[in-house]
Amino acid sequence: MDTDEFTLPKEVIDCLQNARRVVVLTGAGISAESGVPTFRDAQTGLWAKYDPQELATPQAFRNNPKLVWEWYAWRRDLIRSVSPNPGHLALARFEKKVPVFTVITQNVDGLHQIAGSQNVYELHGNILRFRCSKEGNTITEWIETDDVPPRCPNCGGFIRPDVVWFGEDLPSMTFSNAIRASQNCDLFLTVGTSGIVHPAASLPLAALDKGAMTVEINPNPTPLSTWMTHNLRGPAGIVLPALYNATWPTDNQAAC
Ligand code: BJW
Fold first, then answer.
1. CA nearest to 240, candidates 38, 20, 32
2. How many whole angstroms from 125 Cα to the centroid of ligand 1?
3. Closest Cα to atom 56, ligand 1: which residue?
4. Is the C or the N end of the chain the one with fewer CB within 10 Å?
């Protein structure tokens, strides 16, 4: 798809140009063009027969810790092998233009930070961090043995990825900051999320409630679409650079 296939409403460009506070909620779709499968895409290869929604739970880890650990190890290897795409890079450039620019991400891949975004709230943790499943403390190293998952050096409990599974609370300070930012922005962009996982999916509605303009960027409609002020139907890696270039045209010569 090229940029002619969707229209960037002037109202959105004007709002972005004049906004003092902008929030972007991102989901798996923004990393799709980097080669990370979205959460609800079919898994491939060995993992094709498993439903991610059933693996990303504390129950699954309790019942079959080896299976869940190995799924995350496979995803971690994949994530370590990819790079940010033009969508991530465009958001990092937005941050330099807007006085207060906040990325709230549901993704666990760390690609926003690698792209250069500095003000990032990770709602669902980070797959490249680990913690003890018993004591909760962060673990940075352990001795490799035949145990899968490996064991906490302190208490012997299983080590788990530092991500938020279904039924678990989001990190409370991060979520409070995300709500506050959403309730205080002029423009709220929701990018590449199916908008079905709560409480993240409630954030654009919190922004809308306080009078922000809300814009969805996604090739497909979602349950959030009907609430949005504007829907831009296209891949993030095309729409976000196009939005940047339309908003700050004198910067066009710099690669976006
Ligand atoms: C593109 C694209 C391109 C493709 N460009 N776009 C209220 C109502 C109902 C249920 C609940 C509720 N409140 C809480 C719940 C329960 C539950 C929940 O929401 N369930 C729903 C499924 C119904 N929520 C929770 O349990 C949360 N905890 C909680 O609320 O605690 C309090 C509590 C406890 C107990 C009971 C009740 C409350 C925790 C949620 C944790 C979610 N964790 C995961 C896994 C993280 C680790 C991992 O990665 O393994 O987070 S699940 C998974 O979903 C992952 C994602 O971050 C998250 C969202 O998915 P996302 O990012 O939207 O991806 P997809 O794949 O769904 O969509 C991709 C989109 O991209 C699509 O729309 C494509 O079209 C689009 N796309 N290419 C732009 N190029």
1. 32
2. 12
3. 106
4. N
